[in-house]
């Protein structure tokens, strides 16, 4: 999906949709006092069992029978909401908005309060964990993400260190509060970038449309790229477990730029690192559904399934029924309304959603 546009996302496509849930949510978010609170204080073990009271989205993601498909929107919080725009005027720095517990909670709950979706995604970014393993970055208004010291040599690798989860305490705190705020009425969604997608930023130093440096590196410095991707796989696995232990019901893995690779290159440079993550997380948190999304994934669906994730996020270039046929019944799918539909009149949008899940 395009980053700037929200996408309506539906899991488990065999039932009818119902965009508003019956749950009533009327309380204001609870914001804790601004004391330092480190991950160890709210460490809870990953759940190893399922429960009938698990939220609908979690059940659908696991492939359990559900009465209707759950609905949520990717890029749920954001610029289309005036309440968010007002908050962003008061706190113009994206880093501040996404790294301050009370702001994260407030922004994450804005769409929940407005629409009661079945999933509440934490307001964060795939780059948020980078400084916690040695890669500082900025988000510039026009250029977007900028990495201060891109890594493309052995020398650059020296700045990497194991992820320090204490530096991400605001993520853990926010998930814990979100979990409490939405009660059992929605799934709390955590997310991460896949190693290849994160590496595009770390190597190129900023957003790219050509991926020239990193694709060249696959041939000119494969050992450096492999070392970087392995480091990312371990750090991201630790970060996922931390998110689950802090309260995330479900984790979405964004390999947004995986579709920029020819499929055989994706097999070599993305898939093994996603598989490593799946294996570590499934070992520690066997009941947590993992969702894998790639932009432009029509050429990769079967390969995505082979990573062992529980749900495949289809983008809108893949017909839902075709995707379902290609993936088989034993895996859940989510997707895949074209975000541009959100600019259509409501009846047209409703019709498109009905068509997708019909
Ligand atoms: C602009 C940008 C950022 N970070 C990134 C970009 C894209 C740059 C490019 O095209 O290469 C990188 C990024 N961040 C995210 C992804 C994966 C999702 C995708 O493929 O679109 C990607 C590829 C998750 C995210 N990044 C963000 C969310 C939002 C979570 C939610 O509320 O749904 C997600 C899932 C939030 C984010 N992250 C960022 C901003 C400015 C915002 C939104 C804040 C705003 O609108 O003012 C910084």
TrEMBL record:
Enzyme class (EC, first level) = lyase
**Entry's PROSITE patterns?**
UROD_1 (PS00906), UROD_2 (PS00907)
> What GO CC terms are in its UniProt record?
chloroplast
* Record pathway: Porphyrin-containing compound metabolism; protoporphyrin-IX biosynthesis; coproporphyrinogen-III from 5-aminolevulinate: step 4/4; Porphyrin-containing compound metabolism; chlorophyll biosynthesis
Q: Name one GO biological process term.
A: chlorophyll biosynthetic process
Keyword DNA damage belongs to the record: no
- UniProt-annotated location(s): Plastid, Chloroplast
* UniProt entry keywords in alphabetical sequence: Chlorophyll biosynthesis, Decarboxylase, Lyase, Porphyrin biosynthesis
Instruction: Cite a single GO MF annotation.
Output: uroporphyrinogen decarboxylase activity
| InterPro entries (UniProt xref) | UROD/MetE-like_sf, Uroporphyrinogen_deCO2ase_HemE, Uroporphyrinogen_deCOase
Limits of the Uroporphyrinogen decarboxylase (URO-D) domain: 70-79, 189-205
Signal peptide (UniProt feature, chain positions): none
The domain of life for this entry's organism is Eukaryota
Which EC number(s) does the record attach to this protein?
A: 4.1.1.37
- Catalyzes what? uroporphyrinogen III + 4 H(+) = coproporphyrinogen III + 4 CO2
Spell out the subunit comment.
Answer: Homodimer.
Say what the protein does.
Catalyzes the decarboxylation of four acetate groups of uroporphyrinogen-III to yield coproporphyrinogen-III.
Entry's family note: Belongs to the uroporphyrinogen decarboxylase family.
Name it: Uroporphyrinogen decarboxylase
What organism does the UniProt record list as the source? Answer: Quercus rubra
Taxonomy, top ranks, is: Eukaryota, Viridiplantae, Streptophyta, Embryophyta, Tracheophyta
